[in-house]
Amino acid sequence: MRTIIKISFLLIALFSFSCSKSDNDTSVPNQSSKKTVEVKINYGSNYADYAANLGLQVASGDASLKNDFKFVGINSTLSIFHEASIIHQANLSPIPSATSSIKTSVAVSTFTISSAFTNLKENANPLTVTYEFYVDGKKTATKSLVYEPNDYAAKSLILDVTNPTQIIAN
Predict the structure, then answer these.
(1) SS3 4
(2) 112-138 burial, b for 16+ CB within 10 Å, e for fewer?
(3) Which of 159, 47, 43 is nearest to 110 (CA)?
(4) How far apart are CA 89 and CA 113, in angstroms?
(5) Start-to-end CA span in the chain (Å)
(6) 116-132 confidence digits (pLDDT tens)
(7) Which of 14, 9, 139, 13 is nearest to 76 (CA)?
(8) Where do the H-state alpha helices sit in the chain?
(9) What sign for the dihedral angle of Cα 73, 160, 78, 1?
């Protein structure tokens, strides 16, 4: 299951990276197309009945990412590193609080969060999760998703900093 999730994160990164290129791109990196991204996550009132497996991915159009890149606000483990894309994984079991905040340690071109939630309680109610995205400290988009008990499919949200008001949901 984790291998499938990691492969899907990589494919999403490649897709989002290739879609962010335009015909008139030059070889000189555009610094304005990289920004710090933060996602604030608000879990429903039954958050303690669930565990979370989060896949966190960033991409940089100029391939300037370093292997010491960190997601601030969450304990995550490096899964895949490339100068153009980094994937971390974080496991929370059970989810420790009703809110969390995850921020990139450096400016990036895209930010992807893939979430799979597992109910820890047999008769758990669905879990509502609201994601608020901030680019360079300014709130740009909000997305709410519902996760059903015993549904282990990951849901992914992609933010491209060149169009920060639009979230691509997969």
Answers:
(1) helix
(2) bbbbbbbbeeeebeebebebbbbbeee
(3) 159
(4) 10
(5) 18
(6) 999 999 999 999 999 99
(7) 9
(8) 2-19
(9) positive
